């Protein structure tokens, strides 16, 4: 890769920069990040553009393409509300640049605001002096749906209501930064800011270092340390509570949990008992000390809040009230997000902090006060009208914020009547025009408005502000703040230090750390999805092996005097029985059936459908998987999906099946060689072993009955990948008893049922048990018995009935394993201390 330094002996780079800037024209009267008030490119931007221009157009395109691949490979995505499919993350190609001197003002203002809002919450839910003494109208508090009445009088551990705060800011027409809104409910975007940084820093590594960009790792390190400190005990268990995989920002939550080393849990993973919070694990209930919640407060506890919630934990508020768990942020913190509060914050800052706000709000008038309401109505043409609480404008369904000048006469009259009838539901705000920042276009740079979300975390030493943030850049040149939304891109934010930057990571600064080798606790939900991920991967492999065998037999069937039709018929039959291909009338030709079984989307048992199921299971436990594993799972689905786009020949189908099997082999090898041998790996491998054993039984019943030909027995050996071993042992051709022995009873064959049952029994022996009486739990009891019976079985005595009985016992073992380890209901309250069997 060429060096990222401007080398311009012939002035080519300078001409390239000039061409990029040729059509760059910010709107009149609007500050721009690239061009100063004097009309010249700011020095730090000039340095960035000169460096990019020195790379050459082809290299720039290659780097941007690589950035797109990294986003896909890393699984960075988001979901639009109402859509089931995730979208790839839209990262802007250019960062937002902020000099250190300017950043210091933002940093101080955001830290001050976080402290102010924390004190407001402390008073509102505590003594209530602000309301009693008239500094804050009671309706601003009680009128908000985010005021959680059951939290009144609660004293949070450590005294903090806020532990993670975000301010949305924008640069106004005068060049100063203004706060557009506060985020205290469950602020999102920090994980995306981290992912933006990882992608762009790898895209331009030397430029990133040379421009002295401040690192994000120290912020996250201090935030994690602050959460640990809040637990007030050594080695606390910290969870990130997610709404689940259908959350709009689930990808971000996964990445944050992985990066910070937190336990990612859903509401169903947690349970309260004796007013304490626990996580359901395979070893029983484990105490939870701290929860970083990404679930809105109203959904946190169905007993006291929204009874319809399936995202929260019954009894959670009781645990909070007793000080048995710390939440970041506390339920009820969303109160300070209301626009109704904005107009009172300047006076509250002077009252509670003894100083003026360093970052001013956009001017806001709460219409619950007569004078403010009358002023808004009188100047309605010049104001934006917004809901005082929540997101929807009362009386105007589907509208969130609107300009007063956009109302027609009838709408204006209705709005005024609503304001007089219930003014507390509305605020009037100054219409703020956002500044612009450059975005990359094929024909050069273009100015686009942006808003910046800056994050602050509570630490033992006060508030720590992330040096950067989550920047959203609009795709339209409408600079009004209310237009930011759908279609926006996200830009990395580079805070440029004025001196060299020390490398930083999440490594702790203290050497007083106890060494452990069993990493964390495995929630039952995670064990469940790991188990099924293993099963689905193995099932996809088995289906692909059937497809490959069928393609091979079809090729051989074209030869003169070929008489081995039996395996073709049996391969078709088993694919239809598995639901790998649709059972149509008239029946599909063999080649069409093979393609449908590999890449059809209609049948739930096709390799493509099963690969999608594997990806879905993996997405739920994505924080436990390496990027390499995640990429291979996605690659398998993509490769099969390409095959389903049109009819293909047997050789093409055979090649795709083999390539897909190579991906599965790489995935299995990566799991075997790279996944730590703890409980998570055990369940992943258990799923694979159970599925492989069941499939081996089904293959044996289909291809090794009493009427099987040599061709069918050869097919069985091919399906279990044992042809070479068989031929090295037996000089004669395939025979029934030796083939069955190799498929079912051979303890040295990694594809045999005996081998799988042995591994299953070893896994179950190592997993925690809840019994103290020395008796085996049901899964282990079944595995020990099945292992013993298979080890003494005689291949000559095997027939379809006995093989089917083994298959049924394997399925019963899988059910028993699920019943013991994957419980999610109220009967999952296992309190006994786990013990391990020798």
TrEMBL record:
SUPFAM superfamilies: Glutathione synthetase ATP-binding domain-like. Gene3D superfamilies: 3.40.50.11290. It comes from the Bacteria. Residues 95-474 form the Circularly permuted ATP-grasp type domain. InterPro entries: ATP-dep_Glu-Cys_Ligase-2 (IPR051680), CP_ATPgrasp_2 (IPR025841), DUF403 (IPR007296). Residues 522-822 form the DUF403 domain. This is Uncharacterized protein. It comes from Methylosinus trichosporium (strain ATCC 35070 / NCIMB 11131 / UNIQEM 75 / OB3b).
């Amino acid at each position: 890769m060429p060096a990222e330094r401007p080398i311009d002996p012939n002035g080519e780079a300078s001409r390239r920069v000039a061409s990029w800037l040729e059509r760059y024209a910010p709107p009149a009267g609007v500050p721009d990040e690239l061009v100063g008030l004097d009309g010249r490119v700011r020095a730090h931007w000039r340095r960035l553009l000169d460096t990019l221009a020195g790379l050459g157009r082809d290299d720039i395109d290659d780097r941007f393409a690589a950035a797109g691949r990294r986003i896909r490979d890393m699984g960075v995505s988001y979901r639009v509300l109402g859509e089931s499919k995730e979208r790839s993350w839209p990262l802007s190609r250019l960062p937002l640049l902020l000099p250190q001197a300017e950043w210091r003002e933002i940093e101080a203002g955001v830290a001050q605001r976080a402290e102010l809002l924390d004190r407001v919450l402390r008073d509102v839910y505590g003594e209530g002096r602000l309301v009693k003494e008239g500094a804050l109208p009671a309706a601003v508090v009680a009128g908000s749906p985010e005021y959680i009445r059951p939290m009144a009088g609660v004293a949070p551990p450590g005294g903090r209501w806020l532990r993670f705060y975000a301010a949305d800011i924008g640069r106004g027409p005068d060049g100063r930064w203004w706060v557009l809104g506060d985020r205290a409910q469950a602020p999102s975007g920090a994980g995306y800011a981290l992912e933006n940084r990882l992608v762009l820093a790898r895209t331009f590594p030397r430029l990133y270092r040379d421009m002295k960009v401040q690192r994000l790792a120290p912020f996250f390190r201090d935030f994690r340390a602050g959460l640990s400190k809040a637990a007030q005990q050594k080695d606390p268990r910290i969870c990130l509570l997610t709404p689940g995989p259908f959350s709009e920002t689930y990808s971000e939550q996964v990445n944050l949990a992985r990066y910070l080393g937190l336990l990612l849990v859903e509401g169903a993973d947690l349970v309260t008992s004796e007013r304490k919070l626990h996580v359901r694990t395979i070893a029983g209930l484990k105490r939870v000390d701290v929860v970083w919640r990404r679930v809105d407060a109203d959904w946190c506890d169905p007993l006291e809040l929204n009874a319809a919630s399936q995202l929260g934990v019954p009894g959670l508020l009781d645990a909070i009230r007793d000080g048995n768990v710390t939440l970041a942020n506390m339920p009820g913190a969303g109160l300070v997000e209301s626009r109704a509060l904005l107009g009172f914050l300047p006076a509250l800052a002077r009252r509670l902090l003894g100083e003026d706000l360093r970052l001013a709000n956009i001017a806001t008038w709460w219409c619950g006060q007569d004078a403010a309401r009358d002023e808004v109505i009188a100047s309605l043409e010049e104001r934006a009208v917004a809901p005082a609480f929540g997101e929807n404008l009362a009386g105007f369904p589907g509208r969130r914020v609107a300009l007063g000048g956009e109302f027609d006469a009838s709408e204006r009259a209705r709005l005024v009547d609503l304001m007089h009838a219930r003014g507390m539901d509305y605020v009037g705000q100054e219409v703020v025009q956002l500044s612009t920042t450059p975005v990359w276009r094929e024909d050069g740079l273009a100015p686009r408005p942006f808003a910046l979300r800056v994050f602050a975390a509570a630490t033992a030493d006060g508030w720590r502000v992330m040096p950067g943030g989550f920047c959203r850049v609009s795709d339209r040149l409408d600079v009004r703040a209310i237009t930011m939304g759908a279609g926006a891109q996200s830009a990395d934010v580079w805070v440029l230090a004025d001196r060299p930057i020390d490398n930083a990571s999440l490594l702790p600064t203290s050497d007083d750390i106890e060494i452990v080798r069993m990493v964390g606790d495995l929630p039952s939900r995670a064990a469940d999805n790991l188990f099924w991920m293993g099963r689905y991967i193995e099932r996809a492999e088995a289906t692909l092996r059937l497809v490959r065998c069928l393609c091979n037999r079809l090729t051989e069937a074209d030869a003169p005097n070929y008489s081995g039709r039996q395996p073709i018929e049996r391969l078709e039959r088993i694919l239809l029985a598995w639901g790998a291909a649709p059972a149509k009338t008239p029946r599909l030709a063999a080649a069409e059936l093979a393609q449908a079984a590999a890449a059809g989307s209609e049948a739930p048992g096709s390799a493509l459908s099963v690969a999608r199921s594997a990806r879905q299971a993996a997405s739920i436990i994505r924080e436990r998987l390496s990027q390499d594993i995640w990429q291979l799972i996605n690659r398998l689905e993509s490769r099969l999906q390409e095959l389903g786009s049109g009819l293909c020949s047997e050789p093409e189908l055979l090649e795709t099946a083999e390539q897909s099997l190579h991906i599965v082999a790489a995935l299995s090898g990566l799991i075997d060689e790279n996944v730590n041998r703890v409980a998570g790996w055990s369940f992943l491998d258990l799923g694979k072993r159970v599925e492989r054993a069941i499939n081996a039984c089904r293959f044996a019943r289909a291809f090794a009955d009493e009427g099987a030909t040599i061709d069918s027995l050869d097919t069985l050996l091919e399906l279990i990948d044992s042809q070479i071993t068989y031929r090295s042992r037996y000089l004669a051709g395939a025979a029934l008893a030796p083939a069955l022995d190799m498929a079912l009873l051979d303890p040295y064959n990694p594809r045999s049922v005996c081998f799988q049952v042995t591994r299953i029994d070893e896994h179950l022996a190592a997993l925690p048990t809840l019994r103290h009486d020395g008796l085996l739990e049901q899964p282990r009891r079944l595995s020990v018995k099945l292992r013993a019976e298979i080890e003494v079985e005689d291949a000559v005595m095997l027939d379809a009935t006995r093989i089917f009985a083994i298959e049924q016992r394997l399925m019963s073992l899988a059910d028993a394993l699920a019943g013991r380890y994957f419980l999610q209901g109220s009967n999952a309250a296992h309190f006994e201390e786990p013990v391990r069997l020798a």
